[in-house]
């Protein structure tokens, strides 16, 4: 599959998804019901493609469902709060809130993960997060006239949900073995079960009971908007998975950032549902901070990889030095043991046959002391060799752990 086709498909779907979702919410103002239609369409399409042998999709398994459940709950909460934020504000506001996610995620990693799993941020990463914070604060100040408490509330909830989703996926989903399309299928199908609880929490359940949402779908324009949002949602799953596999991490990141700028340009051109022009520079500053943070994260990862390689090389050198010293140490031990045995053999007849003079007795005591000292030296040498063997085994274990990270 051509890289150009994947990149173009991902760009088209990623840049237009938020705008089309906003259009669908304007025509069909039921965010929870819209997510149900999108999730059901995606799950059904993946199952159909799997039945036709066009994609590989895992069948439902109760053990996997239980392991996947926390990630599904966070996934649904993230999408649903995203929809409510889009319904209450503009695409630009959503992009700014999305750019702030690395700040919350970094705090969560520092609080809930060990340093071996989530290392402390570098100085460049902290500076990038500061740029994001300044851009978001400036955007909020320039856009304060239209930022209602409801928008702030949904933005805070979305920020908490998407940050939690990132952390849960890192901690839970990484242990669940599924195919690429299996993740899409499980995410979308199981998310349908969360809708009733969310509809009750958000108050949409009462609206659906008293209003007539199906009448809104009777309008051709509304039906087209909803159908297009479902199609683009499935499209971004396909293009996102395959583009991520075909492109390098850096190329995929650059493409994602370009899509955000394209999304802002399209949103500011096609209609009036966008932020004031005075807020756009702050929005661009927040996006610039996101780019710098991603670059800083890649540099930090490369630095950790270099340190791991260097530590592994030093461990191999220590192993080689230890292996080279073994013959010499073994020779010292053997010579010491033979000397002690010969000394004892030489002294034993003398003590039995003759009664030693005081001078000879003194010499014998001195020889026995030297023999005892030689034995202590031999035992110390054996203990030292054993300690070196344990150090070698520990170094090899650290090397295997570093390679497995």
Structural overview:
This protein is mainly α. The protein has 2 domains: 3-89 and 147-275, no CATH class; 312-404. 84% of the residues lie in helices and 0% in strands. It has 14 helices and no strands. It has helices spanning 3-27, 31-51, 62-88, 91-112, 123-142, 149-171, 180-191, 195-202, 204-210, 213-217, 220-246, 249-270, 280-353, 358-404. Helix 1 runs parallel beside helix 12 and helix 3 packs across helix 7. The radius of gyration is 34 Å and the shape is elongated. The mean pLDDT is 77.
Query: How many helices in DSSP terms?
Result: 14
Q: What's the shape?
A: elongated
Distance between the termini: 30 Å
Helix fraction, binned, reads over 70%
Largest sheet: none
Can you write the helix and strand succession as a string?
Answer: HHHHHHHHHHHHHH
Q: What radius of gyration results from the CA coordinates?
A: 34 Å
Category by helix and strand content: mainly alpha
Q: Tally of extended strands? A: 0
Number of structurally distinct domains: 2
Strand content: under 5%
List segments where confidence is low: pLDDT < 50 over at least 5 consecutive residues.
none
Return the average pLDDT rounded to an integer: 77
